[in-house]
Write a structure and sequence with these properties.
alpha/beta, Maf protein, 7 strands, 25% strand, globular
Length: 195
């Protein structure tokens, strides 16, 4: 049976794959996520997904390696994971009341080939009050999230609009991912009735 390797420590990506019936092995990779000079947010997401997959490529030629990266952006400005509350406040202040982009790139490595897709969605956060920013930060949810919010968690109460892929905003666009894995012979188990 073909091994599916998830090159990500993200519990959200693992949960989304479980939703489709996959039970991936997890290999945590470490790559420098700093943008390069002049690199657009969507190009950054694609490069990082590719780099994470390459870092896990030691799993063997028959394994299917899935890697992804999500970049939150307002124009050409990227918003990574906040390092502290003050940085989260800067993000909420910049994003509040505006539509921004969430780019999630997926890379699948199999038998020496790489398939990459980019899923871009638009999200609008309503402006947050200072008290809401502090209360939300204190829940711990925003700490490891690009843009300092989670659309699938408490942060949903601040999302006034979403155009595109909900699962893509969470960190793994399921439509694209299922197509890519099926092309490697790993159709979603949830559709076959077999775990």
């Amino acid at each position: 049976m073909t091994r599916l390797i998830l090159a990500s420590a993200s519990p959200r990506r693992r949960a989304l794959l479980h939703q489709l019936g996959y039970a991936p092995e997890v290999i945590v990779t470490a790559v420098d996520e700093s943008p390069r000079p002049g690199e657009s947010p969507d190009a950054l997401a694609l490069r990082l997904a590719h780099s994470k997959g390459l870092a896990a490529a030691t799993a063997g030629p028959e394994a299917v390696i899935l890697a992804a990266d999500t970049v939150v952006a307002l124009g050409d400005r990227t918003f990574g994971k906040p390092c502290d509350f003050e940085e989260a406040v800067q993000m909420y202040t910049a994003l509040g009341g505006l539509w921004h982009q969430v780019h999630t790139a997926v890379a699948v490595f199999h038998r020496g080939r790489v398939d990459q897709r980019l899923c871009s969605s638009a999200v609008r956060l309503r402006p947050l009050s200072s008290a809401e920013m502090r209360t939300y930060w204190d829940t711990g949810e925003p700490v490891d999230k690009a843009g300092a919010y989670a659309v699938q968690g408490i942060g949903a109460v601040f999302v006034s609009g979403l155009q595109g892929s909900y699962s893509g905003v969470m960190g793994l666009p399921l439509f694209e991912t299922a197509e890519m894995l099926a092309a490697c012979g790993l159709s979603p188990p949830c559709l076959s009735g077999h775990p």
